[in-house]
TrEMBL record:
Listed GO MF terms: N-acylneuraminate-9-phosphate synthase activity
Origin: domain of life: Eukaryota
Name the record gives this protein: AFP-like domain-containing protein
Pfam families xrefs: NeuB
GO biological process annotation, one example: carbohydrate biosynthetic process
Organism of derivation: Acanthoscelides obtectus (Bean weevil)
Length: 216
């Protein structure tokens, strides 16, 4: 049990309560959630390992997913005491909505907490990395992005003729290839729709197929 929860009523007026769950088993974390929930719905649990610095193999970031599944109605975050900033950014990728890190003005000061705290320049870099990560997460939709269009126009696969062909020829399997060609022509995904079409002009090997080459 957590004695600090005995006087939980004193937190009624706090707008948002953040509870760090270092040095606790999952059973205790669940008890904390159940207890606090009876008094307050607007709070967060922060996954934490209270070791200074925390060994990477003990961080166990997958616990974040466990908390998100078990406590879906509250905010889940991460309080890090590891060296560096990479793990804290990774916690955001796993869904953490709050990141807590300690700040120091000098890592050489006495005390184990200073060694694993961030200097101001590191904290600034962490914030930058997290903001870039948030932008990069995007959506669960796979599509051609606007930034890809220039490259797509240069490197997108186009239907070309695999041999010289005469006007009046019916296009069959073996007459066409799909290659990177510039300027682009008919997209390679349309090749099966082109077979059986009749040419209305003479064409040359590696020439881009154009719709105006075909009898309509």
């Amino acid at each position: 049990m957590c004695p600090s929860l005995i006087c939980l009523e004193t937190f009624f007026d706090i707008h948002f309560l953040v509870y760090n769950v270092g040095m606790q088993s999952f059973e205790t974390v669940k008890w904390i959630y159940d207890t606090v929930s009876r008094y307050k719905k607007n709070f967060a649990l922060l996954h934490c390992v209270s070791a200074y610095p925390t060994p990477f193999e003990d961080i166990n970031l997958r616990v974040l997913k466990l908390y998100q599944e078990e406590f879906p109605d509250i905010v889940i975050g991460y309080s890090g005491h590891e060296l560096g900033i990479d793990i804290s950014a990774a916690a955001v990728a796993l869904g953490s909505k709050i990141i807590e890190r300690h700040i120091t003005l000098d890592k050489q000061q006495k005390g184990s907490d200073h060694k694993c705290s961030l200097e101001l320049c590191e904290f600034k870099q962490l914030v930058t990395n997290i903001r870039n990560l948030e932008k990069s997460l995007g959506q669960t939709v796979k599509k051609i992005q606007p930034s890809e269009m220039e490259c797509f126009q240069k490197l997108g696969k186009t239907i070309v003729y695999s041999k010289d062909l005469l006007k009046g020829h019916m296009l069959v399997y073996g007459d066409l290839d799909i290659k990177v060609a510039e300027p682009g022509g008919v997209d390679g995904s349309e090749i099966n729709n082109i077979y059986g079409k009749i040419l209305n002009t003479h064409v040359l090997i590696d020439e881009n197929l154009q719709l105006e080459h075909l009898v309509t």
